[in-house]
Amino acid sequence: MRPVAPRYRKAFRDLTSHWFRTMLVVLSIAIGIFAVGVMLGGREILMREFHADHSSSVPPSVTYRTADFESETVEQAAGQPGIEAAQARRSASLRYALNGTDEERSITLEAFDDFRALDVGKVVPLDGAPWPPSDGEIVLEASAKIVDGYSVGDVLEIETAEGEVVEFELVGFAHDINAMPAKFVGHETGYVTLDSMEDLGESRAFNQLSLTFDGEDLTWSEASRRAVDIRERLFEDEDIVVFYTDVPEPGSHFLGDIFDALSLLLLALGGLALGLSAFLVVNTVSALMAQQVRQVGIMKAVGGSAGQLERLYAVIVTMYGLIACAVGLPLTAAGTQWFTDYAAGMLNFRVTSYAPPVWVVLVEVAVGMLVPLLAASGPVRRGVRMSVVRALNGTGINTARFGHGLVDRVLGMIRGLPRPVALSLRNTFLRKGRLALTLSTLVLASAVVMAVWSVRASIEQTIDDLETWWGFDLQLTLAMPQPAAEVISEVEGVAGVTAAEAWSVFPAALVRDDGSENESFTIVGLDPETDFVRPHVVEGRWIEQGDTDAVVINTDAQNAESTLGVGDVLTLGVTGAEDEWRVVGVTKGQLGGPALYCNEEQLTEVTGGLGVTRVLVRGGRADADDRGDLLASVEDALNDAGYQVTSATTRVELADQLREWLGILVAFLVLMATLLAAVGVIGLTGTMSINVLESTREIGVMRATGAQHKAIYQIYVTEGVTVGVIAWFLGALLTYPISYGLVLGLETAIGIPLTYTFSWWGLAGWLALMLLISAFASIAPAFRASQVSVRDAISYE
Amino acid sequence: MAATPSDTPLVKLRELVKVYDTGEVPFTALKGIDLDVYSGEFVGLIGKSGSGKTTLINMITGIDHPTSGEVMIGDTPVHRLGENALAKWRGRNIGVVFQFFQLLPTLTILENVLLPMDFCSTYPLRERVPRAMDLLEQVELADQAHKLPAALSGGQQQRAAIARALANDPPILAADEPTGNLDSKTAEAVFGLFERLVEQHKTIIMVTHDNDLASRVRRALHVADGEIVEERIHRERHTG
């Protein structure tokens, strides 16, 4: 067997004999692979799996919530032209308590005639859950697990409309991507049989029909038009009341906005991570090559040609890359899987494959192999082409000349600093090329981390702004419209209630010019001078006393119908009647969907005095627990008076739901920022370690001339901290444009005007972290260097 | 028996000038040097620190480039060669010995000696290890062949560096202060090695500031302020 040539043995031994340096280089490259892989791979897997899960569920083109109907209507619907599939279900919103506790929560129960043959909006039982459950058993939608840690065997005491309690045993979980995740809406979804529905005093008849339309490239407008057409033929002609028609944008999901925002964030931060990783790898490999210049000189002195040396260093760098890939790729796969599971759990979808697309793996390999080779090519080329004498004298790539530039002269003029501090400052600027590379990595990482902090602050501020909308403590929804005065009278009689108000809230259909309808709106009739809400008018004005046809739309409505604006005249269908309304203003939405606000008197007139469905309550005490007690008292009072309550929440819970919703973005932002910060930290640690390693001879000289450990530490920690502070300062200058750009992108993606807030805390926090990190990054290598004997330090290669 | 130098110069320097750009005032290290060195000669370049003797030997080895003038080694115009061509030429024609040995720290002594043969492909693969071992035998280091440089003393490292310099059997050996970093006993051993190499018809050019050693070379050139100011020929060489 042909023996390995000595030069390639050198390549291998360079790796093994300088294990600390090898570890640093490998770690730097591997963290680059990890950051890029997790962000880009995570994004691709999230989008692919979410869309695959959503498509496989056969999402409905339209869902009608109606009065009771029988299976003949379903058969009739399935036979209509243009209908691919039809699925009916019985749905009921009730309240329940878990395992005998006092706390009541809302639940939406759903029942099908054949659980095993769902054609639209498929629900998948998980982990062998009995499907269908037996009578007296319930299967919960899996997102409930995240809320309260439900487990099989729990007992749900469900209260019927008549006030009786029926116990259900939790026997398993099922996945329904079309169900609102429990943590976002504050109520669970459960599946029971039609027999169980009867036990709960509900009818066996269906009250919800979901249909899918045929035809590819179905537009929203066409879907809406078909929905209206079918509603008329199927229900209205049969005198079946349709309460609500939901026509989602074809192919879209209610979490689509969040996904768009996440996708944008991951793409933007993935791009930044790619740049950061490239800088980190270039920095590390350049530092490595600078250390090799003298050896290049020796090899040239004994006959090594440029081509031979270039190949030799390509082999060395390739070995670093291979080890980094061997370390980084499995870590990236594990990290991506964790990230995808975290996102899937949060956003309630199933992941069937964690395999990233081939192009993402190629990018990871490129970061691991190609970037280091490209990074090394410049220094290697310069190294092998310089004269041997320059290489041997150490005046080659690693030109460490101080005193010639403006910065050097300025630093030289600073007087009165302790000598170690002065030395540290001058050392910092000794290798200006290296400093520039180190700073590039750190400045970018710092800017992104601080920008993410500002984006987070903007989201938090937006939540705070939205919270101020609610001027009430409790909000309850009634199953049926009721007379306002009677409801208010009942509520005001509850101890602890200081004020109460009741609103008329009805589904509304926006009739477009082409005759199609958007039925996702809600119209709210309220006293224009109410102090139960504090509207944030972003355009036009709020409703006023005396307004007859005025409506104020929210920004969610503008997102649902992008052409809507102040001055428009709308045709709205409310409880069967169509009227024209004039848009007088736009208010900020609360993520509660498209809403229209009008004068209560006007809405009463339109609906023929149907009554109120929403009750708002203010209490005298500020404590959140008391609000819970008060909520229970009000709910009991309304139930006792014969008003069925379908949902009851405190303002704190509403705010929490909002926080959960936008909190997804915050959580991901923090996760991404942590990852980017880790890249920056490892980059700084690596660079400082290599800087200190390069200075091993100087450390030897200093120690030989009497420098004690403390002085060595002081010099290198000051140098590291100086680099950290410069990076922080330059990064801070970039923070505003980056964060502003990210906030603008997010606004577009989630369709909510965000309150841009620059986070000074972010700046201060990152400065504190940078001080710690840079000090830490310098202490470890300085400690290593201080342990080397003077003789070894001076002879360090 | 001492070798007799030939009549044709092996090294021919003409009007050699080297100017260093040190920033504000250029420094002229060599001021138009003319020199002939014949095959089989043992030449010593002596002078004080900063006199230009290292610069001069670097011009001969091609380790540094002249600002003007000619460096002819045999028929090769070294001053015209690029870095890459110089490396190949040097590997085959000149063995370089440095004051600080400059062995590659991660290669064993044997591997360091094999390295020039590897780079220049001068011997068939199967002959390289026996040849390297033979050279190490000559410098009395065969038993240390598989050790790393750090495990050897300064004198041993310098002898290993000499073995490496001889790997491709170059006609010329250029040594810059080869004993400068050694104690007197070890320096004497290294010098004795050079004398034996001259007996084997090698041409040796050695920089030294040790007047005692300078007095023992056949031809001593005194360098001062970038010029050869004195030349002494010693007809009888000491052998130890």
Structure, explained:
The complex is a heterodimer of chains A (797) and B (240). Chain A is of the alpha+beta class and 797 residues long. Chain A has four domains: 1-58 and 273-391, no CATH class; 60-246, no CATH class; 400-468 and 654-797, no CATH class; 469-653, no CATH class. In chain A, strands 2-3-8-5-7-6 form a six-stranded mixed beta barrel. In chain A, helix 8 (256-291) runs parallel beside helix 11 (358-385) and helix 15 (432-467) runs antiparallel to helix 20 (651-694). The longest helix of chain A is centred in the last third of the chain and has 44 residues, at 651-694. Chain A is elongated, with a radius of gyration of 33 Å. Residues 395-400 of chain A have low confidence and may be disordered. A six-stranded mixed β-sheet of chain B has the order 6-7-8-3-9-10, sandwiched between helices. Chain B is of the alpha/beta class and 240 residues long. Chain B has a domain at 40-54 and 87-233: P-loop containing nucleotide triphosphate hydrolases (Rossmann fold). In chain B, helix 3 crosses helix 4 (125-138), helix 3 (109-120) packs parallel to helix 5 (154-165) and helix 5 runs parallel beside helix 6 (184-199). Classes of the chains: A alpha+beta (797), B alpha/beta (240). The interface between A and B is large, with 34 and 38 residues.
